[in-house]
């Protein structure tokens, strides 16, 4: 199936086409025959694209983890569980999906940011990418991305320097300035709202919740010194930065987004 060919629409035809392509892909992965560079003698990239197009154009639910695991079971030379082989195949699907979405005008880094959350349902991934792209095109999205990446970079540096993680909840009694109190309150509210929206697959609502972080994140960085001389306040503020990181992870891994 080429990129411009019609996809099957009849349920039986869809089932046969998906089974055939998944069997083909897992079979070649089982013998470690994968496309390399420009070489793809068995048209495996086309087969993966075919799976992607059939799923997306028919609005189908196909959890790739479950589908590839089931298809790999028949190949006797795959070690127990076949985890490494399966992860390689899932990464291949991710690359093909990036190419497909890029051809349609989507950004590959947004696909990375969504795939990093571990989702494997193609339809859900695409809808989340679309909502994320629309959000980042807004002023709130652009500013929140800048603030979140700043928080992530500070955490990365300080956690490496201190050889520890600041993933514990901040202590409310150590929130001294109004901007850090406001941020702590907002991240809790936003995380709950975004998680509830994602659970219902209402990704537009999830992004709308994220937009509420923009102002308190900006105010925090404008008025609060993270690396203060007081070690208790410093630790608590780093924990608060982690809350920004954790909350945005509800919708995507912002560290993988360019810009």
What's the gist of this structure?
The protein has helices at 11-30, 44-57, 64-72, 83-103, 108-115, 122-136, 139-162, 178-199, 203-211, 214-223, 231-248. It has 259 residues and is mainly α.
Which key phrases capture this entry?
about 260 residues; mainly alpha; about 65% helix
Can you walk me through this structure?
With 259 residues, the chain is mainly alpha-helical. The chain is built from 11 helices and no strands. The chain has helices spanning 11-30, 44-57, 64-72, 83-103, 108-115, 122-136, 139-162, 178-199, 203-211, 214-223, 231-248.
Detail the topology: elements first, then pairings.
Elements: H1 11-30, H2 44-57, H3 64-72, H4 83-103, H5 108-115, H6 122-136, H7 139-162, H8 178-199, H9 203-211, H10 214-223, H11 231-248
Helix pairs in contact: 1-2, 1-3, 1-4, 2-4, 4-5, 5-6, 6-9, 7-10, 7-11, 8-9, 8-10, 8-11
